[in-house]
Design a protein that fits this description.
This protein is an alpha/beta fold. Strands 1-2-4-3-5-6-7-8 form an 8-stranded mixed β-sheet, with helices on both faces.
Amino acid sequence: MPLATVFVLALAVTASFAQEPVPKQTFTYKTAGNLNIQADVWRAPGDDVRPAIFWIHGGALIMGHRGNLRRAHLDRYLGEGFVVVSIDYRLAPETKLPDILEDVNDAWRWVQQKGPEMFRIDPRRVAVVGHSAGGYLTLTTGHRQQPRPRALVSFYGYGDITADWYSKPDPFYLKQPAVPEQEARQSVGTAPVAEPASPNRRGRFYLYCRQLGLWPKEVAGLDPVAERSAFEPFSPAHNVKAGWPPTLLLHGDQDTDVPFSQSEQMAAEFRKHGVAHEFIAIREGSHGFDGRLEDPQAREAFERVIAFLKRHTR
């Protein structure tokens, strides 16, 4: 199986929710033009007020949707007493980064304002969890959201979106046959989309971007060289300061999609600014290592995620 396909499948829907562990409610938290942008909410039975997890899917901001939450993770979060809110957001390149971030802002505001009444959460005890690009978006909530999240968990996320790994051709993806521009453009569209009908097909556009170093330009609509300063508000690594929420970073040291150094950079910024944090390095870990909880190292790491979330949402 081609490596790009492996990556896309890791981020695509990996679990069917045909048999829900608990009833799922779907809400439209925002309408942008004619597009309804939705969130799924899971809550185990009971009427007590609970902490919540605000969950953000990955997919390079190009692929994926709110259904990507792995069943094993969801079951564990629910079993530990969390309400889980998984959000969609508009995807690139049809929608550019400032509006994607605004969707996350609006979803956070919706959870804070509507969550206590609609699904009985304590808005002061909401943690943000995300994977890959969702990890990136999770890190942006550390400096963009008010009130601040109670804690952040970033699985193989990133903090610098203008670094060479994204703004120059990537050696790993150059090993695969080049994606022609026409094919790449045909795999996406022009109208805004938040829940793509064919999420895997959009992976061709992502591969095209990585092969040519075009991700920042296609996703943000800005040139990472000529307009580098314009990216500053969008890069968490450049916005760490006192008051940042406690953060847990998890990253495989053999990640061929998001460099391990991206989490190292965030950890260094947290140390510099005195931010409470933990950094779990997964030895020989690849992108999406947490999809294999039967692996002892991944299982232990996920147990630390649970402990971290419970500690900071008490």
